[in-house]
Specification:
5 helices; about 0% strand; globular
């Protein structure tokens, strides 16, 4: 019998207390990494996982502050 592979259901399969949005609401922004905060902000409109997109944005801009201060056109250059 072939091994059965299960596809991840993403963040909905995580325990609720570990999900970034819920942690933001219950514990505040200081409980999250910059990448998790960015992921919350960009969770809509990206095809790939938002955590990965958040990390890519932070890597490209260097910090959350630099990302916020970047021109919108620079943000739009990030490919999903």
């Amino acid at each position: 019998m072939a091994a059965r592979t299960t596809k991840s259901k993403g963040i909905v399969s995580w325990p609720q207390e570990e999900r970034p949005r819920e942690r933001l609401l219950s514990r505040g922004a200081q409980a999250l990494t910059d990448a998790e905060l960015v992921a919350i902000l960009v969770r809509v409109g990206f095809k790939e996982r938002v955590g990965r997109t958040g990390r890519q944005l932070l890597q490209r801009f260097g910090s959350l502050r630099a990302m916020v201060e970047a021109p919108v056109i620079a943000l739009l250059d990030v490919k999903d």
